[in-house]
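Incident review: delayed structure delivery

Summary: a single-chain prediction request sat in the queue longer than the usual turnaround. Root cause was a stuck worker, restarted by the on-call engineer. No data loss occurred. The affected request and its eventual output are reproduced below so the record is complete for anyone auditing the incident later.

Affected input:
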Amino acid sequence: MIHEASHWLPDERGTVVCGLCGHRCRIKRGDFGVCGVRKNLEGRLVTCAYGEVIAAHVDPIEKKPLYHFQPGSRSLSIAAAGCNFRCPFCQNWEISQLRHADGSVRGSRPLPPEEAVRMAEASNCRSVSYTYTEPTIFFEYAADCGLLAKRAGLANVFVTNGYMTAEALEAARPWLDACNVDLKAFREETYKRICGARLEPVLESIRLMARLGIWVEVTTLVVPGLNDGTDELHDIARFIAGVGAEIPWHISRYHPDYKYDEAPPTPLETLKKAASIGAEEGLRFVYIGNVAAGADDTLCPSCRATLIKRSGFSVSADRLRDGRCPRCGAAIPGVFF
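Output delivered after worker restart:
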């Protein structure tokens, strides 16, 4: 559905400048931005991603992954087609790499904001997650859903590459409660070559989320030969700890997918090394998902008691008491109500 876009300015000769993401595309009449979703239509910026979802499912919040935000709850997960990155190892490439610009979007269906919120309520969800693709590119739709969700007592979650502008993030603050940011690497050349983007806007988004009081967790897909060097893992962990030692760091295992077959699946020892590095740099909560029982449990950083036990994406035991460890009384950062 064509819908008036937010966060843009007119320029000379009918060109528009999009201020939604870090690309800050300068778009000529009739052209699309990098995302393939936002178009200059006769001198005004419109979005083609409003109210049309390519996916809608009820997920456990742990699948986002968010481990310190409403653990054990359900979240309505919705996505419009498209992305502002071109990662060759994208796990959701079948929907994220569809583009309105080339007419490749197929299989989407209308889901008005009011219906999305009703669906979340009917499914006993405690939140709506904008996920699977990049939610920044369907910001206007997410904003309208998010405001309605807040009025209904539901939280809102972005699972994002973090490439939104500060203006967009500040505009989302009234309704956006939590984010999981995919920090793909810590080298500018990697972001440029792999994602077609820059590193610094992602780092600034993480900093700003923390300053705005949005609960943030970070995920890094560890890819052999790309971002698994000891120095780079230290840099990632040190950055996160510098923003907040309480920020959970999720270390994900790479499997060959889409166009990227230059590396084997990440060895378990590499993931364990990354977790150890996270602890060395002062991170209090580091998780390795989908590799071994216990690697994704939440432990008290003070007494090491198991507070939340997980099996896959399910919470099998939650021993927190009012956000505190029942053994030693330590406060555990997060949103646990």
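Verification: The two ends are 36 Å apart (CA to CA).
Action items: add queue-age alerting; document worker restart procedure.
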